[in-house]
Amino acid sequence: MSTGEPLTTFTVFPELPFELRLKIWHCIAQGPRTVTITYGSQATRHKGKTISRFDGWGTPEPAPIILHICHESRVEGLKSYQLAFGSHFHAAKIYFNFAADILRFGNGHEAEYLARDAEWIKAGPAPYRLD
After folding, report:
1. CA 34 centroid distance within chain
2. Phi, psi of 124 (to 5 degrees)
3. Reported pTM
4. Where does the pLDDT of residue 2 fall: very low under 50, low under 70, confident under 90, or very high at 90 and above?
5. pLDDT score recorded for residue 117
6. 3-state SS track over the chain
7. Which residues pair with 94 in a beta bridge?
8. For residues 24 and 72, what is the distance between their CA atoms, to the nearest angstrom?
9. Hey, what long-range contacts does 49-56 have (CB within 8 A, 24 or more apart)?
10. Which end of the chain is more exposed for a tag (fewer CB within 10 A), N or C?
11. What's the rounded Cα separation, in Å, for the pair 46 and 54?
């Protein structure tokens, strides 16, 4: 009999058939995310001039949750997500699903590039400064 309260756990998930669990993990991995990548740099002053050093691309977004649930979910998640946006000098450190995720570049002032959903579109272009 239902008490009308929402479930907080689903303890029978491990007992589901393996094929069904894989389909569930696959559906979770296919959900689109908006991933903001930011230009990482360190600025120093030398003889009155500012010198910037590129430190690689970063993101304020956490890694996809499917990669942290369990070994089974991670294996399935890595079929969709891959480490991306690295170079010869900087290791890739952002998990991205090229078939589903939306890429957003942003180094706006303060936290405007962290705005969720379509709020950042209404704000107009962010001021960028890449030295």
Report:
1. 7
2. 85, -175
3. 0.65
4. low
5. 46
6. CCCCCCCCCCCCHHHCCHHHHHHHHHHHHCCCCEEEEEEEEEEEEECCEEEEEEEEEECCCCCCCHHHHCHHHHHHHCCCCEEECCCCCCCCCEEECCCCCEEEECCCCCCHHHCCCCHHHHCCCCCCCCC
7. 84
8. 11
9. 50/131, 51/131, 52/130, 52/131, 54/90, 55/90, 56/85, 56/86, 56/87, 56/89, 56/90, 56/91, 56/93
10. N
11. 16
How does the average pLDDT of the chain come out, rounded? 78
pLDDT at 110 > cutoff 60: no
Q: What does the pLDDT look like over 25-80, one tens digit per residue?
A: 988 888 788 898 887 777 778 788 777 777 788 888 899 999 999 999 999 999 99
CB 96 within 8 A of CB 59: no
pLDDT at 72: 92
Q: How far is CA 70 from CA 13, 61, 74, in A?
A: 12, 20, 6
What is the rounded CA–CA span in Å between residue 102 and residue 119?
A: 15
Structure tokens at 56: 């690689």
